[in-house]
Amino acid sequence: MISLIPFICRDVELTEKLDYSSAVALVGYSLILAILRVFDLRDEASRVMVAAPLVAFVTTHILYLNFYKLDYGLNMKVCMAMGVAQLLIWGIWAGITSHPSRWKVWLFVVWGSLVVFLEMLDFPPYKGFVDAHALWHAVSIPLTYFCWSFVQDDAEFRTSTLLKKIK
Q1: Where are the transmembrane segments (predicted)?
Q2: What is the pLDDT of residues 22-63, one digit of tens each?
Q3: Number of domains in the chain
Q4: pTM over 0.85
Q5: Dihedral sign, CA of 120, 123, 124, 127?
Q6: Which residues of 93-124 are buried (b: 16+ CB within 10 A; e: fewer)?
Q7: Any domain includes 29
Q8: Coil, helix or strand at residue 134
Q9: Do the domain assignments include residue 1?
Q10: Is residue 2 situated within a structural domain?
Q11: Where in the sequence is the domain holding 24, given as residue range(s)?
């Protein structure tokens, strides 16, 4: 029986930097979107006041990782802090809104909170095949479906609400 080598051992400095940078960029961008949607920020000045500091922080963090010190622990803390903030924002919003698809947000928040533990555990490959990171990727797939499904439902809901106001 051939043991599979975890993909992470094949990383070189460039792929590691791309991995860390893209992860923090995605989590930072998702946090910005969560704040803009949950607080219904529509005017340009409000959006810039929220987005600019977060974009500056994420950009500075990426520059630090790429040109000063590639620090996995620091990157994990930054990603976790922004991810937890995002889950809290969405969870509180789902608890107080009457949105018809809020159950998808709840599912995303609960499932997302649970799969984070796989990323934090980081156990070695079980029988040489599946490690915590690979399992995390696998169980995160349904999260994408629920998130995108909510985005579609939300667009329809907000559009129908606006059309009702026009009539």
Answers
A1: 20-39, 48-68, 74-93, 105-121, 133-151
A2: 999 999 999 999 999 999 999 999 999 999 999 999 999 999
A3: 1
A4: yes
A5: negative
A6: bbeeeebebbebbebbbeebeebbebbeeeee
A7: yes
A8: helix
A9: no
A10: no
A11: 7-166
